[in-house]
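Lecture 7, part B: from sequences to assemblies.

Below are the input chains for today's worked example.
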Amino acid sequence: MSAVPIEMADRRKLIQWLLGISVATVAWFIAYSQLSDFAEWLVGLLGLSRQTHFGEAMHFFLYDTPKVLLLLTGIVFVMGIIQTFFAPERTRALLSGKREGVGNVLAASLGIVTPFCSCSAVPLFIGFLSAGVPLGVTLSFLISAPMVNEVALVLLFGMFGWQVAALYLGMGLLIAIVAGLVIGKLKMERFLEDWVQKILAGQTAHPVDEKFSWLQRFQAGRNHVREIVGKVWPYILLGIALGAGIHGFVPEDFMASFMGRDVWWAVPAAVVLGVPMYTNAAGIIPIVEALLGKGAALGTVLAFMMAVIALSAPEMIILRKALKPTLIATFAGVVAVGIMLVGYVFNWLL
Amino acid sequence: MKSIKVLGTGCANCRNTIALVEAVAREKGVAISLEKIEDLPAIMAYGVMSTPGVVIDGTVVHAGGVPTRSKVEGWL
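Predicted structure of the full complex, as structure tokens:
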């Protein structure tokens, strides 16, 4: 008997959610369309002129901050809902028994939507292998998951438009697919640590199956916003503030001499610089936007960003628990080459 | 007494899960023995892929992220 009132309460909550989402969506679009006027108005209110360095920097800051936060909140909420459809167990089931090729493409795509925190990388890796997912396919998943980053995607879309965002998405997927294929062809299974091989020979894992109601999916979306936006907003503000400073005060074409598209060694240098760093895309991209305005080439800057995210030293140290140095080196080498190619392609295209 | 094990390599989510289980157990006055499993081969032996995972009396009841409060209350 007690099940009925609970169901009623859930139903009412679901209706509240649907109403809330409708109102929020309308408010979101209205706010997004007014961003430029809003920044203009605020700058005027502060008694600043856009003719001055400081006024121009303030305008950059006041325009970009609400724009980025609006985009981020919207996309992260939707991603939170999408992720409830792709538990790691489900992804593994989708991938097991897939041939290489098809499997790599599927794995790279699932890497974008499957939720997991970076400290789960090794358990996930082994869980996939033990279910019969080939090594190369598993690596396609593990490369695309951090590299095609939703926060980076949102920021690129907001600041450079959908073409650049789509190119980043496509190139990230391509690197993940090709790198996985290459490592699969090299037959490197013997470079897994011994304890991993022992587990592979033993049992397979039993899945924890969870069913979501729509109410829970919406709540997952909200939690995702709290978690991601709650964590990255200081970096974004800091990034935008730095970007605003560069935008307002650094002379035009200042960056062209060492980050421009004609500097052939800029792309590999950016990748090498990026590896020991470990920050998130949120802080870097607003700076990227400002750097580009001063003559830096997009491919160079993106290569730097991808190296920071996908090839970071801490990530390698985590993976070292399961992979022998030869395999780690191959993994890093293949991904680094891929990122450099992307850098050159972007510089050449744009 | 329930034996509860939290599986995780030591990230923030794992620590939050332990704190949540402890808090709920204290509130409800349920006696538990709480253990933290950080050893990767041991975690894998439970077949958990995404941490934190929770094991109660030998059965995996949760994996992948901090469980909700109501879920923890349901276990105890």
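Note for the exam: Chain B has a mean pLDDT of 83. Keep this in mind when comparing with the next example.
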